[in-house]
Design brief:
By secondary structure, the chain is mainly alpha-helical. The chain folds into 3 domains: 101 residues; 93 residues, no CATH class; 60 residues. The chain contains 11 helices and no strands. α5 packs across α11 and α10 packs across α11. The radius of gyration is 25 Å and the shape is flat. The N and C termini lie far apart (53 Å).
């Protein structure tokens, strides 16, 4: 069955190369394969899968045009390209995460305020370098407003009234609308919050008991009692490690699918907007570091 599918895909590519028809269907089929590949291969979440698709998408078009029918089927050629591009993406993400640490500096997020701001001294890292502002210190392009909106909503769990007012000032979006979006996203996170708190409590209790039994072990002279204490400590270590593992699997930020749902935009638009703004910010950081 797989061999037949491989031959069919190869046939579609060769037909397109000859006639120039069928590109849209072929493109969609390969994009879906690339989108779900990291999820099935490495259990990535869909937000990260979306980032990989945006990174890999230009390669999809190149593989369709550059494929030459020899011994290998197109399926084999595409999967090989997909595999190596995934590792290239991972290397890029590691580099970005390293640079991204600089973006956690508070002064990087100092957006220009609407009134009473002295612009004579420009801070080296400023969002003005990543986005374009008009003379009223509001973001010019509608697309960039959406990028900042979606990107900020990823942090809706910890957003305050001041943050919302700040966003209103630079985008022009109504405060009431932004507040409603934040509350809706917090509701989508309730189940995750409950699970996170359960495992966080379990981890704290296990850690406290480990410390207590560790002190008891230091002062214990009876060999049998020492063995019992060591066994209890080992069990508590298992509980602690299990709780840490469970916590690491809970993503305490709204998914891009949730953001798309509450804002009414397609998920692809949200994925693309967040990816684009991240790229702009990373370029800004890179310029600053260089």
């Amino acid at each position: 069955m797989n061999k037949q599918n491989n031959m069919l895909l190869t046939k579609k590519v060769l037909e397109y190369q000859k006639s120039g028809t069928g590109f849209t269907g072929l493109q969609k089929e390969l994009a879906l394969r690339a989108y779900y590949y990291p999820k099935y291969k490495f259990k990535w979440n869909l937000d990260l899968c979306g980032d990989f698709l945006l990174f890999f998408y230009p390669t999809i078009i190149r593989t369709i045009h550059s494929y030459k029918h020899q011994e290998r089927s197109f399926d084999h050629y595409f999967n090989s390209t997909l595999y190596w591009q995934l590792f290239a993406f991972v290397r890029k993400q590691k580099r970005i995460n390293c640079e991204w640490r600089y973006a956690t500096q508070s002064h990087f997020w100092d957006l220009p305020w609407i009134e009473n701001v002295d612009y004579k001294e420009e801070k080296p890292l400023n969002l003005k370098n990543a986005l374009e502002f008009d003379k009223h210190n509001r973001i010019k392009k509608e697309s960039e407003k959406k990028q900042l909106l979606f990107f900020t909503l990823k942090k809706s769990r910890t957003m305050t009234t001041k943050n919302i007012q700040y966003l209103t000032a630079v985008t022009g979006y109504k405060t009431e609308w932004l507040s409603a979006l934040v509350e809706k996203l917090k509701l989508t996170m309730q189940d995750k919050e409950k699970r996170f708190n359960i495992y966080a409590c379990r981890r704290k209790v296990a850690f406290a008991k480990i410390l207590l039994l560790g002190r008891n072990l230091e002062n214990e002279c009876c060999p049998e009692r020492r063995v019992q204490l060591k066994n209890k400590i080992n069990k508590l270590h298992d509980i602690y490690n299990n709780a840490c593992d469970r916590i690491s699997r809970i993503h305490m930020i709204p998914t891009q699918e949730s953001i798309a749902l509450v804002t009414g935009y397609p998920k692809g638009t949200v994925d693309c907007a967040i990816f684009t703004l991240k790229e702009k910010i990373i370029r800004t950081i890179s310029v600053y570091l260089n």
